[in-house]
Amino acid sequence: MARSRRSRAKGSRAGAAPGRAICWSACGSPSTRCFTAEGLDVRSDHTISFPQAALGAVVEVETIDGPVKMRIPEGTQPGRVFRIRGRGIPQTSGKTAPRGDHLVHVLVEVPTELTARQRAVIEELAQLIGSTHGSDVPKRRLLDRVRSLLDE
Predict the structure, then answer these.
(1) Which helix (H) or strand (E) holds 6?
(2) Could you please report the per-residue DSSP string of 30-96?
(3) pTM of the predicted model as reported, rounded to 2 decimal places
(4) What pLDDT sits at residue 39?
(5) Counting beta carbons within 10 angstroms of the beta carbon of residue 35, is it exposed (0 to 12), middle (13 to 18) or buried (19 or more)?
(6) Which residues of 81-102 are buried (b: 16+ CB within 10 A; e: fewer)?
(7) Which of 109, 57, 56, 105 is nearest to 84 (CA)?
(8) Which of 4, 57, 96, 103 lies 20 to 30 angstroms, CA to CA, from 135?
(9) Per residue of the chain (152 residues), what is the pLDDT tens digit?
(10) Taking the domains of the chain in order of start, what are their residue ranges?
């Protein structure tokens, strides 16, 4: 059983009217799908892995009508927005009514803990593409970085 909650988002961008936030959650499920309505268009975020962004993939994206398969081209950069035409809010009731689009904002998840093999492969990739930025800098924990900022 799915529940939906609609609420009015406060604030506006560049003088635009406030949008509507629409959240769906399945009962007993910890994951909540949130969509933001902008006119007839619907916006959502979708997280993909680093290999999916680099190599391309077909991912399942949750829309207001249910899941849809979307192709992620190889070399997709973080923050790219994909448009799924006709999957937004209907202009009027009825199946033939024109609809807005679903805009998917892609977030790329970077691994935080690597095995020795994964680290070696990524370092080899960095050497192949000529990017060794940060490879000779010792790894510092977040707490150490915060402490160094407070000491300044």
Answers:
(1) strand 2-8
(2) S-EEEEEEETTEEEEEEEEEHHHHHH-EEEEEEETTEEEEEEEPTTPPTT-EEEETT-S-BSSSSTT
(3) 0.64
(4) 87
(5) buried
(6) ebebeebbbeeeeeeeeebbbb
(7) 105
(8) 57
(9) 344 444 444 444 444 444 555 554 444 344 556 888 888 899 999 999 999 999 999 999 999 889 999 999 999 999 999 999 999 988 877 777 789 999 999 999 988 899 999 999 988 888 888 765 555 555 667 777 777 777 76
(10) 2-110, 112-152
Residue with the two structure tokens 């077909």: 58
Give me the residue label for tokens 């398969």: 69
The residue written with tokens 């402490």 in the block is: 147
- Write b or e for each residue in 113-134: b if 16 or more Cβ atoms lie within 10 A of its Cβ, otherwise e: eeeeeeeeeeeeeeeeeeeeee
